[in-house]
Amino acid sequence: MTCLLVAAVAATAGGIMHWRVAVAQVPLVYLRAAEAHDCTLTEALSATDDERQVAWCGRRFSLLGTHPDLLSFKNIAKPIDEPEFGQNGPPSQCYPVDITETNMTGAQPGAMPGWQFCFIHTPAGWRLAQEGYG
Q1: Measuring CA to CA, which residue among 97, 31, 96, 94 is closest to residue 68?
Q2: Where are the chain's structural domains?
Q3: pLDDT, tens digit, for every residue of 56-91?
Q4: Which end of the chain is more exposed for a tag (fewer CB within 10 A), N or C?
């Protein structure tokens, strides 16, 4: 567990690590934070204001909506390179994950196999930039 946390901190703090090793740790840290309803961490690991506003953590953010709530996750697949989302560096890395959710805008609560979490490398480290199917 300590190695995972050190790798995640280095990855998110811009530590000197091979980029493929660093990004591989960030999805697991993000998903564990989401499952634990840790809005501070899921928002910090989001690349854009839009992603921060809907960061996975299951907590109300306005009178009109809620953060989606990740009830569980499993089967984190190997990353898929998505060059069209890259910003000044390696392409984004999209991780298909089987999730169970509630409170997601436009989706029925329940299982969503293969939901993709896409991370880009920013000056602050790897951050969630986009998510969805395909």
Answers
A1: 31
A2: 2-132
A3: 887 655 445 567 888 999 999 998 887 665 555 557
A4: N
Average of per-residue pLDDT across 91-106: 87
CA-CA distance, 123 to 26, in Å (whole number)? 15
Is there a contact between 76 and 95 (Cβ–Cβ < 8 Å)? Answer: yes
Structural class in CATH, domain 2-132: alpha beta
pTM given for the model: 0.75
Q: Which amino acid is at 121?
A: H
Query: Does residue 29 have a pLDDT over 80?
Result: yes
Residue of 87, 96, 100, 78 whose CA lies nearest to 132? 96
Q: Residue 53: which H helix or E strand, with range?
A: helix 49-53
Q: Which two tokens stand for residue 122?
A: 């920013």
